[in-house]
Specification:
DNA polymerase, domain 1; three-stranded antiparallel beta sheet; 3 domains; hpI Integrase, Chain A; mainly alpha
Length: about 325
């Protein structure tokens, strides 16, 4: 059956029939949308409309809306991807007909975005677009001539941040966090540094997955798709024991948006600049190497699948290696 939705003064028709790809088309007038919907349903039922029809005539925005509706929800990072897709929908490139997108369009988009955001962000946006094209070709049977993203050069990744807590910054940061009205901020910062857990992992952590007797925290699902059991230091356990128990069962019942605001205010009170919340993971990982753990032991704690990502920490052990050399 056809559904007709008004979007920004235009009418979008979406037809879903069993054993047939979803069909969408946008019109300026509702009467035209209704007429096209009736005619298209009849053609589909009679087998007169091929799967390719004129879907490539839809602009990129329509295709991105379909991707956001049908593909994104099944991904772990659906919230972040949703934000990026909606940003893409507002960009001028979204008005281009999907089937007419060429490498030149994407190069222009890439170059403009590089003036606005980091190379890593642009690369992530291009990766999403690339998957949109691949999905359209493989899953939606859209008649387009390949994936134009494959024909352009993606920006190189930014150099990884190596920001660490310096001088008395940790003391100032913790003091500032203790002054927050939110009782979860201070223990969150301590546990994040001690365990190297990612922000999302900590926000999803449930009390039922804490085993303070065994000094572990179980993460049933992590960013790389695997579960992980994280050892807890004495300092981490002390912080966890002070956290108020919340009815939700979450150890840290705080939203990402609220946490971002709490962090920014804490850094301002402490007079600390250019410190990201994710830098605590780098700080914690560095400390693990400084404690003498080897790369495999550290990866077990941090959850890094690609050991190459941990090689940048090996400089921390140069002094120890020098002593061994005599």
């Amino acid at each position: 059956m056809a559904s007709i939705t008004k979007r920004q003064n235009k009418w979008q028709v979406r037809i879903r029939l069993s054993n047939y790809p979803t069909v969408t088309k946008t019109f300026n007038k509702k009467s035209h949308a209704l007429q096209w919907a009736r005619e298209t349903e009849i053609q589909i039922e009679k087998g007169l409309l091929t799967t390719g029809y004129d879907k490539a005539e839809d602009n990129l925005r329509v295709v991105l809306e379909r991707y956001l509706s049908e593909v994104t929800p099944s991904k772990k990072g659906h919230k972040v991807e949703g934000i990026r897709l909606k940003k893409l929908m507002r960009d001028p490139i979204a008005a281009t007909k999907f089937g007419y997108l060429k490498p030149s369009h994407l190069i222009k988009y890439r170059n403009q975005r590089l003036k606005e955001v980091s190379a890593s962000t642009v690369k992530k946006e291009l990766n999403i677009l690339s998957h949109v094209f691949e999905t359209a070709i493989k899953e939606w049977d859209m008649p387009i001539n390949g994936n134009p993203i494959r024909q352009i050069t993606k920006p190189k990744e930014n150099k990884p941040r190596d920001r660490r807590l310096e001088n008395d910054e940790e003391e100032r940061l913790l003091l500032s966090c203790s002054q927050s009205r939110n009782p979860y901020l201070l223990p969150f910062i301590i546990v994040a540094t001690e365990t190297t857990m990612r922000r999302g992992e900590l926000l999803q952590l449930e009390r039922q997955h804490l085993n303070l007797n065994n000094r572990t925290a179980y993460l049933p699902m992590t960013k790389n798709g695997d579960s992980r059991t994280v050892p807890l230091s004495t300092r981490a356990i002390a912080a966890l024991n002070k956290i108020p128990i919340h009815i939700s069962g979450k150890v840290f019942p705080v939203s990402e948006t609220a946490l971002r605001g709490l962090w920014n205010r804490a850094c301002r009170r402490a007079g600390i600049n250019n410190l990201h919340l994710h830098d605590l993971r780098h700080e914690g990982t560095s400390r693990l190497f400084e404690l003498g753990l080897n790369i495999m032991e550290v990866s077990t704690i941090t959850g890094h699948k690609d050991l190459k990502m941990l090689k940048r920490y090996t400089h921390l052990k140069a002094q120890d290696l020098a002593l061994k050399l005599g």
